[in-house]
Design brief:
alpha/beta, 15 strands, about 30% helix, globular
Length: about 325
């Protein structure tokens, strides 16, 4: 970097141009390989949180990691509002930035807006596991929730499969009906709005749970033989059903145990580490096998890895330099 230029700010509008869904899938897969090699260094503690629920409903999260293979070091900060009715986690009206520095010198490199990279990473990090545990030729995709998570899961999975039918549901009828019209036109296949979650999940080859609900959403008994269920948040699949799946794969046991809902499920005896088939990096590296039988029902659950967020931010930084995008901010010099 030219020392005289300062710190590169990569704004949201530029990230949309610089990062494709295919790019995000590739970066997420590469980072899983880094985890398999043991070349990712976590911060201590892994996550810092400041939650002021009463009156303000305000939540700050700070995470950091060092990726030796790039090399890249970064800190991710985000702030959102959640009063139980309105949740801004997936929207543009919350704070989301990643600060990158040169690990050889500590020099500031960039500040990257991560609204787009976070949105697509959240889906890509789970969808990529379907390469190993997804059904062979899925025809029906079910989307439970059609916000940031559901919409980007559809984008990711549509690059991997050719579906003949997509079902969707959400809290509001007008929202899911508008989504169905939009994506039917975009994809040229039937996208059907359903009134209930069961109608979406039952009979689907791949089902995705991506809501902001803290309640149990989908039930294991709705999942047909051969189905892959992708859980992107909190309690998308009934915790009592986890141990009844043929295989369960997650991004990381350590980070999931920091999540209250996951920890309660384990501590209550509903699921144990011994019942876990694999962490996703073990599938990617070949340390563990993926799907072995067509009729296996497999659960993919992710909580999100800051290592992938930082890798995507560094990807965006390098692309912005190549294409002369972004805004130069003055450095301390």
């Amino acid at each position: 970097m030219d020392d005289n230029k300062g710190v590169l700010f990569v704004p949201y509008k530029d990230t949309l141009e610089l990062l494709s869904v295919e790019d995000a899938l590739n970066v997420c897969e590469d980072v899983y390989r880094m985890h398999a090699r043991g070349s990712v260094v976590w911060s201590n503690p892994h996550s810092f949180k400041l939650d002021v629920a009463e009156d303000f409903h305000n939540h700050w999260h700070v995470k950091s990691a060092f990726l030796k293979d790039i090399p890249a070091t970064g800190v991710r900060i985000y702030n959102y509002y959640d009063d139980g009715v309105r949740n801004t986690v997936g929207g543009l009206d919350c704070t989301r930035y990643i600060a990158l520095s040169d690990p050889h010198s500590g020099q500031a490199l960039a500040i990257v807006d991560e609204h787009w990279s976070y949105a697509v990473r959240s889906a890509a990090a789970a969808a990529i596991a379907c390469k190993w545990v997804g059904p062979k030729n899925p025809q029906v995709l079910g989307l439970v929730g059609i916000g940031t998570m559901g919409r980007n899961s559809l984008r990711c999975l549509s690059t991997m499969y050719k579906f003949s039918e997509i079902r969707c549901t959400s809290r509001r009828a007008e929202t899911r009906e508008a989504f169905a019209r939009e994506w039917s036109l975009k994809l040229g296949i039937p996208v059907i709005a359903k009134d209930s979650i069961e109608e979406v999940v039952r009979g689907a080859d791949i089902a995705v749970g991506g809501t902001t609900s803290g309640d149990i959403v989908s039930r294991e008994e709705w999942l047909k033989p051969g189905c892959t269920f992708i859980s992107l948040a909190r309690r998308e699949l009934d915790p009592a059903g986890w141990s009844k799946m043929d295989k369960v794969v997650i991004d990381t046991w350590e980070f999931n145990m920091l999540q209250p809902q996951f920890k309660r499920m384990v501590e209550s005896g509903l699921f144990s580490r011994g019942e876990l088939h694999a962490e996703i990096h073990e599938l990617v590296s070949g340390a563990k096998v993926g799907r072995e039988r067509d009729e296996e029902r497999i659960l993919i659950h992710t909580t999100g890895l800051v290592s992938q967020d930082i890798a995507l931010a560094h990807f965006l930084y390098e692309r912005a330099l190549e294409r002369r995008l972004g805004i130069w901010l003055p450095s301390a010099h």
